[in-house]
Amino acid sequence: MRVTERRSALVVVAVELGFPLSLLAWRYSLRHASPALAAELTPVAHLLPLLAAPLLILIATSLRRLRHGPPPWWWTGAALIIQLAFVLVAADQADTTVLTLILGCTLLVTLPKPWSWLAFTVTIVLGVAAHWTAPVPAMLGLLAHNLLSGAVIYSGIRMGEFAVALRKAQDQLAGLAVVRERARVSRDLHDNLGQELTAIGLRAELAARLVLKAPDRAATEIQAVQHSTEKIMDDVRRIARGHWQPVFEDELATGTALLESSGIRCRTRLGTAPGDRIAPIAGWALREGITNVLKHSNAEQCLIITETRNERFRLVIENNGARRAGPPGTGIAGITDRALGLGGHVRAGPAAGKRFRLIVELPNGE
Question: Which runs of E-coded beta strand occur in the chain?
Answer without folding.
Answer: 265-270, 301-309, 312-319, 345-351, 355-363
